[in-house]
Amino acid sequence: MEEQKKTDNKRGSDSEKRRSFQRPGKPRRSGQQFKSDDDFNWNKVLKVVLSWSAIILLVFLVMTLFKGAEGTRVELSYTEYEQLLKSGQIAQATIKKSELTNYDFDGELKSPSTVVRGGKDVSFQKFTLTLPFIDSSVIQEWTKQQIRFSIVKDDNTWINALVSFLPWVLLLAVWLIIMRRMQGGAGGPRGIFSFGKSRAKMLNEGAVKVTFLDVAGADEAKMELMEIIEFLKEPSKFQKLGGKIPKGVLLLGPPGTGKTLLARAVAGEAGVPFFSISGADFVEMFVGVGASRVRDLFEQGKKSAPCIIFI
């Protein structure tokens, strides 16, 4: 019975100690939530680009099919066009004036004719070619040959231009995705092109849900860190007396003893942002990169002050 009472008293004293480290007015919190400012869903971007590219390609194919349904047109050279024009075989034509290309001449003969293509005679009545220019002499010649013609503006200019640029857009999108994957493999989302940028993971205020209740033992360390927590929560109380917060705290212990958890609990108790980075990230084969990352890390810390930087 005496041993059981001692055990109960010991448990009660332990629970009272643990309650003393609980922040007043705050319920017990558990779990962790990691958020990175550089998170970006490049897979979603690739899906959007590919989806729109597929839609544009489908529209272009439908337009091509409708164009083909109008009748097969043979593409002629300028010399063949001049021969047909001088012989008076052209009956009518539609000239599409494009803002980005030359004049597209879609003509129709009075009667079918033949032209050699691939060593074979091809019969045609509708033809097409591209004219570099149209001036008054050309129009006079058409009038002389009694050709019924009309000059219209091509409404599909921008669609055709967009379709022509579509392969380059796809190549650029694939290249960007590959580069982002390479950068991610080269050390985080910032990648190989941001050598001097810090790789620290940041937990914003309120995202740190670890408190001293989640840290078992280490009562002496908790007692010493409580002073830092009080300073972070109410710095004016210490500054009035001329007090200054320590520039750093050294946590010693073998791996797995809870140093990171303890530092995160300090940030959770004080309600300040928490930066976490490995010391190995400051060591690089390029001269000056490590120092640049240190400067960048502390610049981020100054912008988020008060905060805790854990290395």
Could you list some keywords that capture this structure?
311 residues, Signal recognition particle alu RNA binding heterodimer, srp9/1, Rossmann fold, 5-stranded mixed beta sheet, disordered N terminus
Please give a quick description of this structure.
This protein is of the alpha/beta class and 311 residues long. It is 45% helix and 17% strand. The protein folds into three domains: 73-154, Signal recognition particle alu RNA binding heterodimer, srp9/1 (2-Layer Sandwich), CATH 3.30.720; 159-191; 201-309, Rossmann fold.
Describe the structure.
This protein is an alpha/beta fold. It has three domains: 73-154, Signal recognition particle alu RNA binding heterodimer, srp9/1 (2-Layer Sandwich), CATH 3.30.720; 159-191; 201-309, 3-Layer(aba) Sandwich (Rossmann fold). 45% of the residues lie in helices and 17% in strands. It is built from nine helices and eight strands. It has a five-stranded mixed beta sheet, covered by helices on one side. A hairpin with a 5-residue loop joins β2 and β3. α2 (42-69) packs antiparallel against α5 (157-185) and α6 runs parallel beside α8. Mean pLDDT is 72; it is low at 1-7, 9-39 and 185-193.
